[in-house]
Design goal:
Layout lengths: L13 E4 L8 E4 L12 E10 L4 H18 L2 E7 L2 E9 H13 L3 E11 L11 E3 L8 H5 L2 H4 L2 H19 L2
Parallel strand pairs: 4-7
Antiparallel strand pairs: 1-2, 3-5, 3-6, 4-5
């Protein structure tokens, strides 16, 4: 590969502010330059929790904290939220995902945290977002379905599919 060529599968390297999209605030910078550290232990974790003290300012603080920490740690993902539930996907280096999840478990803004998916992956679903926020626009389960335990019956593939669909919608929405 010559300098300046873009590889077929672009490796994750780093993120930089994205001035054309202030809503998401961050985008990933991909490069095929020699000397770039590739992530070989890419982990994906999806969990659900109940918000404690859910309101606009609390959610704004969670998103700001997540984006800053994720930027620092090389983590991307998405948060689907509404007043009664958070459903979040995190993806990045395994050690950083584990540390992030440990912080979430200690965070008093989350109650009843339950891990739904924990797996090694070869590529990211949300490579362009430090933390995509989806205020229940893509929500597929009703409150009564959640109360009836739909997530306990859902397969990991069905849960991941929710985020894959969200990613495709977000990409389409951000295209000119």
């Amino acid at each position: 590969m010559k300098k300046g060529d873009i590889p077929a599968k672009r490796p994750y390297t780093s993120r930089k502010p994205r001035p054309d999209n202030p809503i998401f605030g961050f985008a990933l910078n991909f490069t095929g330059q020699i000397g770039v550290k590739l992530i070989t232990d890419l982990k994906q974790l999806i969990y659900i929790s109940q918000p404690f003290g859910f309101d606009g300012p609390t959610l704004g603080t969670i998103l700001l904290d997540a984006r800053m920490c994720n930027e620092r740690d090389g983590i991307t993902g998405a948060l689907v939220c509404r007043h009664d539930v958070y459903l979040q996907l995190l993806e990045g280096p395994a050690d950083k995902i584990d540390a992030t999840y440990a912080r979430i478990l200690r965070d008093d803004r989350h109650a009843n945290v339950n891990e739904l998916v924990n797996r090694t992956v070869s590529e990211r679903i949300f490579a362009d977002w430090a933390m995509l926020h989806d205020p229940e626009k893509s929500w597929v389960w009703s409150r009564s379905e959640l109360a009836d335990g739909v997530l306990k019956r859902a397969t990991q593939a069905e849960i991941v599919e929710v985020f894959e669909t969200l990613s495709e919608k977000a990409k389409a929405d951000s295209s000119p």
